[in-house]
């Protein structure tokens, strides 16, 4: 059985997407060389990347032309984008699906590396609601945005978690790892 990991960057006030348009929505993220090395490690442990439609479109616009170590891995891995009206993606090794719960359930039951959700708060909320996310890796950036899109939306049901680890990066990012606190 494969592990589903939701990996997301947030601001200290819980925003994963800042206000504004285009790159200014993420210009606060502190991605340095150490973060790139960590990203390579995470991608090397994965065999499939999972994205909501908006994140998929943004990633598919940026990554295909990138030839750095992260880009090489992003382009080589299997990618599944989820949309209510899936089209035909042009990004290498990518496909679209309109059934996130069924697709992730099927992928999770198979063999291979981690299933890595990058950003994609709405997709992660859907999968969380069905008990399909095994681990949350929330990278908190030392910045307060004051506005934007929260990672966990108002009205999100309570989610009890147990910490599994932390890591502090020289950039000031603090990654908090948690798993669902499942009751038996």
Look at the structure and give the mean pLDDT. Answer: 93
The CATH homologous superfamily is named Dihydrofolate Reductase, subunit A
Which fold does the CATH topology refer to?
A: Dihydrofolate Reductase, subunit A
Q: Report strand %.
A: 25-35%
The name of the CATH architecture is 3-Layer(aba) Sandwich
Q: How many DSSP helices?
A: 5
**How widely separated are the two ends?**
19 Å
Which spans have pLDDT < 50 for at least 5 consecutive residues? none
The main pleated sheet reads as: 8 strands, mixed
| Total beta-strand segments | 10
SSE sequence, one letter per element: EEHEHHEEHEHEEEE
* CATH classification, class level: Alpha Beta
Polypeptide structure, described:
The protein has 184 residues and is α/β, with parallel strands linked by helices. Helices cover 27% and strands 30% of the residues. It contains five helices and ten strands, in the order E-E-H-E-H-H-E-E-H-E-H-E-E-E-E. It has helices spanning 33-44, 53-62, 69-76, 100-109, 121-129; strands at 4-11, 15-17, 46-52, 78-82, 94-97, 114-118, 135-141, 149-150, 161-168, 174-180. The strands form two sheets. The chain has an eight-stranded mixed β-sheet, with helices on both faces. Strands 2-8 form a two-stranded antiparallel sheet. The longest helix has 12 residues, at 33-44. It starts with a strand and ends with a strand.
């Amino acid at each position: 059985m494969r592990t589903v990991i939701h990996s997301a960057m947030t601001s200290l006030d819980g925003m994963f997407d800042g206000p504004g348009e285009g790159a200014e929505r993420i210009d606060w993220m502190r991605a340095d060389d150490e973060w790139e090395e960590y990203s390579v490690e995470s991608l090397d442990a994965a065999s499939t990347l999972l994205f909501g439609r908006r994140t998929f479109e943004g990633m598919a616009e940026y990554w295909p032309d990138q030839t750095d170590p992260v880009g090489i891995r992003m382009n080589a891995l299997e990618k599944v984008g989820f949309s209510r009206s899936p089209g035909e993606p042009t990004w290498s090794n990518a496909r679209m699906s309109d059934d996130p719960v069924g697709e992730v359930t099927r992928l999770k039951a198979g063999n291979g590396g981690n299933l890595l959700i990058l950003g994609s708060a709405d997709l992660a909320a859907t999968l969380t609601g069905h008990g399909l996310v095994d681990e949350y890796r929330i990278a908190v950036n030392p910045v307060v945005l004051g506005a934007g899109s929260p990672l966990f939306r108002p009205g999100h049901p309570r989610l009890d978690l147990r910490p599994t680890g932390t890591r502090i990066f020289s950039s000031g990012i603090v990654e908090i790892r948690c798993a669902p606190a499942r009751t038996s």
